[in-house]
Task: structure prediction
Amino acid sequence: MAKTEGSAKVVVCDAGPLIHLDELDALDLLGDFPEVLVPEAVWREVLRHRPLALEKKTLVLVRVAPSPGQPTSLLRGLFETMSLHRGEQEAPALATKHEHALLLTDDTAARLAAGVLGLGVHGTIGILIRAIRRAQRTKKQVLELLGAIPNKSTLHLKRSFLATIIDQVEHEAG
Amino acid sequence: MAATTVIQAELPPELTDRARSFVEEGWAANMNELLAEALRRFLESHSGDLTEAMIQEDVNWGLHGKD
Result:
């Protein structure tokens, strides 16, 4: 299957998807995006929990230092209200600086904040399933990856919900 | 007084230090109150229904998105 659709210009990663995709040996899926930006606080978090994820030869991750100066009061207030920690703050803040940027996070509060900021936001599950549409993995391979989530990754999902997702992919994916 | 449950948890020292300082400065009555409030807020902002709805959006994007 040819890649006939464009991908977002820039992806900004929170720690969750980097860690979870690496746990599933699927970090290469991010290579489909032209640029993968990793804010400094996220880089450090991944370095602490999953250092090998930062050393893949097949994927170029761009480490981005935080911008000088304070975030706007709107951003600060939003992040404090959502109780986002450092990495979860830096990732959406960085994404707001890039037009059409896609934020990748598995944290619900960070997703909420991203929604308020008008950012496109997805997570590990979306990237895995997208791999079928982008011809990076076969449907069978993605179904196996989804099935491996409870045992092979630290992404926590309700089992019955995961079963529903697998069923949907089985029936709707090309 | 409402019934309570004692929970033993291992926390990173930096987080514990910040929590203690927060209490000592007077922003919370004690560590129990602070931890209960932190837990309540986390559970509210990470409700199962909300998380499922967001992941479902992810599934639909993965299957049928354009980017």
